[in-house]
Write a sequence for this structure.
């Protein structure tokens, strides 16, 4: 299936969710993430600051901020740079996403775990992003475990997403209904 078709299908389905469904789905996904050994053992975790149509990360960041070193991406030209997260050090940045302030960038290769947002995933770990390639460029520079998080309807069948050579697949996917899906590479 073409990536633009997937984006349109997912956008339409997300528009049907109410606030309670969004909140409950995010709680299920991030409670599952918190129960994983990979999260428990990770010290440096690259997260994302969610947009209104994504699984909400704000409560999860607040809950674990004192126990983990969280990092968030910030757009810098055509790439993402990584900075430490602090609730008091963010600003509305590119694409209306809250981004971290400061100059103390970190190297993505130092991350223990990366939580990856996407428009959709398939059961092979392929992802459809928003179309700019920021995450593929970033993920290609890291050996960290990569976990995709999404609503159940954002999960497509195996190899249903046309992967390109530069696309980077995730190692696990967590959905609000299926729980943890391990990807066999």
């Amino acid at each position: 299936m073409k990536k633009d078709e997937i984006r349109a299908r997912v956008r339409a389905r997300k528009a049907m969710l109410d606030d309670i469904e969004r909140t409950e789905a995010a709680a299920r996904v991030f409670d599952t993430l918190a129960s994983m050994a990979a999260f428990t053992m990770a010290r440096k975790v690259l997260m994302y600051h969610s947009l209104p149509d994504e699984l909400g990360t704000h409560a999860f960041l607040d809950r674990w901020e004192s126990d983990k070193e969280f990092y968030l991406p910030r757009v810098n030209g055509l790439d993402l740079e990584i900075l430490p997260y602090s609730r008091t050090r963010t600003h509305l940045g590119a694409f209306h996403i809250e981004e971290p302030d400061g100059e103390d960038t970190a190297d993505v290769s130092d991350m223990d775990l990366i939580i990856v947002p996407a428009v959709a995933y398939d059961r092979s770990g392929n992802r459809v992003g928003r179309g700019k390639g920021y995450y593929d460029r970033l993920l290609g520079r890291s050996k960290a475990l990569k976990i995709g998080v999404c609503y159940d309807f954002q999960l497509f069948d195996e190899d249903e997403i046309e992967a390109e050579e530069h696309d980077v697949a995730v190692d696990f996917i967590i959905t609000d209904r299926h729980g943890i899906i391990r990807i066999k590479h």
